[in-house]
Amino acid sequence: MIFQLVRSLHTGPVCRAAESSLLAKLRKKTGYTIANCKKALEMHNNDTDKAEAWLNEQAQAMGWAKATKLAGRTALQGLVAVKFDKNHGALVELNCETDFVAKNDKFHKMIEDATLACFKFAHTHMQSKGPVTKMELDSEQLGNLASEGGKKLSEILALFIGSVGENAVLRRAECWKANSNDVKIAGYTHPAPTVAGDYSAGKYGALLAYKQANDHEDIGKQLCQHIVGCAPRKIGDKAADKPAKNTDDETCLIFQEYLLDPSYTVEEILNQNKVEVIDYVRFSCGESVEANMPGVEKQPLDTVQTMQ
């Protein structure tokens, strides 16, 4: 009789409702399947903290295994993201196999975490050197940076790969720091976001370091738009370079027709607005990359690892 009473208390509607509530909360918090969340709760006597920790351990192990298995598969889709303020900037590329995955909310969160980590790196670990300090990070170095939660980006990436079932690569990043108040940094990605801000992601992106007189309207964003749209290969020097005979073939920034008003050259726009371009970098998602990017400092891996 007593045994039946105790059993009824543990299997009654109130208890089942409580267990169902725990299951729903764990599912919502972690994003794992209902079956896995139920198994985790059963294994840990409905202790949600222990259940969540177990789920993460299992997912991490499965993610690393799947990441290793899929590592050789081509990943040329994805996004380029930028984050910047007046004196710092970060440009990051994250690749995947299909455009479908690139539109996934988890993919967007992954590249945002990576961009924030690079932006923080630019703020805290870059020494002043010239007008702008620039650092290029490769895939391995990028993976060794820590996210806001303290996890390495490579660990977050493995979890992501395990959840979507296709290869993804933290491909490259640029971290910039302006070393004087008269040097500004601007950034832009295309397609442009509906609401402008200091962070955005798209298929193309650019960072720009420049000087501009304070008595003129800032055109840093517009110049970034031009760089993204027209893909100049260098700034250009009037003394050493000559304009291309066909304007469509022009690769020097200063000689190109200005994207926002082709009746002017970029050089004319710079002069009108008292702008000096110091440097820029442009990413196109999935493009082939030169082995060494001119003007960008490539640091040894241990430099990045010791700066967490």
Automatic annotation (TrEMBL):
This is Elongation factor Ts, mitochondrial. It comes from Parnassius apollo (Apollo butterfly). Belongs to the EF-Ts family. One of its GO terms (biological process) is mitochondrial translational elongation. Residues 89-239 form the Translation elongation factor EFTs/EF1B dimerisation domain. InterPro entries: Transl_elong_EFTs/EF1B, Transl_elong_EFTs/EF1B_dimer, Transl_elong_Ts_CS. One of its GO terms (cellular component) is mitochondrion. It is found in: Mitochondrion. Associates with the EF-Tu.GDP complex and induces the exchange of GDP to GTP. It remains bound to the aminoacyl-tRNA.EF-Tu.GTP complex up to the GTP hydrolysis stage on the ribosome. It comes from the Eukaryota. Its main location: mitochondrion.
